[in-house]
Amino acid sequence: MKRDFKTRWLGSRAILDSRVFYFLPLLALFVPLLTNPYTQFVINLMLVYVLIAVGFNIVLGNLGQLAFTSTTCFGIGAYTTAIAMASLTLPFWIALLAGAAMGALAGLFASITALRGIRLYYLAIITLAFGELMRWVYIHADAVTRGTDGLPLPPAAFFGLSIDSEIKRFYLFLAITTLMVKGTSNLLRSRIGRAVVAIKDNEFATASLGIPTAHYIVLAFVWSGLVIGIAGGMFALLIGRVVPESFDLTALIFHFAMVMAGGLGNLAGSVLGAMLLTTMPEFLRSFPGIEEALFGILLVIVILLRPSGLASLLAGHLPMFRQRFYRER
Amino acid sequence: MEARLFYQLIISGIAQGAIYALVALSLTVVYRGTTIVNFGHGDFVMAGAFVAYAFVVLYGVPFVVAAVIALALLFALGFAMERGLIEPIKAGPHISFAMMTIAVGYVLRGIARAEWGREVLPMPRVFDLPPIFIGNVVITGDAIAFIGVVALSLGVFFLVLYATRTGQIVQAVYQSERGAALVGVNVRAFHSVIWGVGAAMGAVAGLLLAPVTLLYPDLGANFLIRGFAAMTLGGFGSLSGAVVGGILLGVAEQLLGAYVSTKLIDIAAYLVIIAVLVLRPTGLLGRIAVVRV
Amino acid sequence: MSPLLELSDVSVHFAGLRALTNVSLQAKPGEVKAVIGPNGAGKTTLFNAITGYLQPTSGQIRFRGQDISGLPPHLISVRGIRRTFQNGGLFGEITVLENILCGLHSQTNSGFFGLLFGTRAAAAAERQAVAQARSLLELMGIGDLEDRQARDLSGGEQRIVEITRAISTDPPLLLLDEPAVGLTPPARDHLIDVIRRLAGERGVSVLLVEHSIDMVMKGSDVIAVLNGGQKIAEGPPDEIRRNKEVLDAYLGYA
Questions:
Q1: Would an 8 Å CB–CB cutoff place C123 in contact with chain A?
Q2: Same domain as C138, residue C32
Q3: pTM of the entire predicted model
Q4: How many domains is chain C built from?
Q5: Looking at C110, C135, C170, which one is the last position of a domain?
Q6: What DSSP assignment string belongs to C130-180?
Q7: In CATH, what number is assigned to the domain containing residue C62?
Q8: What ipTM was estimated for this complex?
Q9: Using one digit for the tens of pLDDT, what is the confidence trace for B210-250?
């Protein structure tokens, strides 16, 4: 593929490739100039959901396993962070790392199930069961988790600077999300990402190329859990109080929807899908039930018309939405 | 005293388990026929209950008529769903089916919630059967109704399956779709019909629940999970396994709840799923194998 | 000099099915050996046993003098045995270049942390793999297919890509499972040419399962014939062509 100066910078197609993603966070630095605390909150929430979608897509889209692990890892990450701060009085950044570690551990357990040969609907059901089991634990282990009342977080500080406003949270979340998304992209566009999608496509052939499939299945689940776990920790900080309800089946459906809307296996798609779906409910805050029904109908339409998500719709015009598994530079 | 409690628990377990058996069976019927698990099936159960409720309470229709309407409506819903939403995407990954069925369930729940708000609704009692006493163990009227209706449904189902020509066609498609197509079975129509049947069977479960339990839009999720647990315990994909699993699950819930802790009733299903898939993935009467590279 | 691959009295028996019985076979560098036989003769079982997807019930499989019979497929592959699959093992959802890169996986030195943090070493290893993949595609004459989605290729193109992927690590032994199925005669001839060059110019030992007798006669140096799980004959094409038992096995099948 020859690339000369003209094509690279003057050809309109080539401009919007993945390098755009380096500029977006820089532009985003100016966002707080345009927002009030409420819209800022929504944007912060959006950053959390971007991480969930990106993490969940690794298992759902790239590895192609029907594993309902998002709420499990999200909840474990959130509660771990909250408990670390509330009961163990650890600083936020350590609590967040703990949340990440626990999320990764949850991913590890899920991968062990997959490795034992449990696939497709069995895997879906067991991960679903495990998620609901965790929610039961959050409700009933109320000595530690404060049950349905919710576990409040003590005031958080990031290396001395107190994170007490939406704007401060925004910058922190922006940094974390950007780093994690970039890290995930690095992994995806490398031999690791290639191995994972190869396994999804044809596990037997993958093994014949000298690729240890078990290794990469575990890696995909663990990284996914880690990313979603971090999202959980961020969520805990954002909301200020962790309740079991946030990790129920409705939440799972939402996570699932973000990934599907963006496009299975497409990183840029998940970012977009998360951004769209978090801002949309704001328009649908009408009557209870209508919102749900409309959301469901929308999903149905999306699946019927474009099961490969927004990314596939945009990829024709915007190369950055075409998922590649190697880097040119 | 001890023995009496034990038998009482068994009886209520079987009664409750009968519902689970029905839900699990209807899930399996659809799964065997189309290799798709309907993640919105719990909401079909709920829809059946709500339709009955609407017609009885709002329009003053006698229960039996409402039941028939509910069955017909749910059959139509299942049929239409397969025709319009599942069949067109059949070339896609299973994840799409999962999402589609979940989305439809979500829509049903939204409609239910919009129509009836967040209240939990009572319905006038329909079965007023006198309880039966065996020694000093009571079988309540409700239990009789549950077990009776489910037993009857199962009886009809298995009779049709094994003793009629229609049933033979169903068995043929279950064993080999391609083979059945080759001998002239209209597989496409079969798919739609079997979805309708599955939905209607789910509606039966809903109809049993309606007069007895408090209805709320989210009740489907509970029954879906229990249906899965029953299927897993009995052996995923096995028809008789679904029934056996359902009843065992019902009994297990009651026993765990009484002898260990009432908190466990909620999660008995999850524990069963995890235990079975970890220890013996094929379940009790299982057929489907597990993947290994 | 000991052969590259040596099967000694290998049997693969399942419950009730004797897929292979006491098969002994060798593969030498630079030699193209075809394995033929009627359906169900055990050819694919043989390949699966050699590449680790099946374990022999008895007998030994030695590669470069070492016993490989218990190893999992990916370890056998790393030792130098690569294969293609009967139903096409290409990864349809990704591009041709990405497929070749998958083939180079075991030789690409980019580790998890290096990739995650974007170290120069990892990036260099990845770039090198991309360059290597590209030159390999050029060498095989399919450089222009680089950016195509693998599933969009024609049958013949897919075969060549799959073979290119398999040889990307310069394996001394290559197993091709029915590579000519569904190919047009010109594509077939091209395939024979590619295989001959691999063996002749690069010294690769090729084991080839094929149904097309024609292809096998033109393309191989030695032919081994299996029937009912046993090897019934082995020799140069001319000999096999005239072998009575072989003719019986095939004609008796019609």
A1: yes
A2: no
A3: 0.90
A4: 2
A5: C170
A6: HHHHHHHHHHTT-GGGTTSBGGGS-HHHHHHHHHHHHHTT--SEEEEESTT
A7: 3.40.50.300
A8: 0.91
A9: 888 888 888 899 999 999 999 999 998 899 999 999 999 99
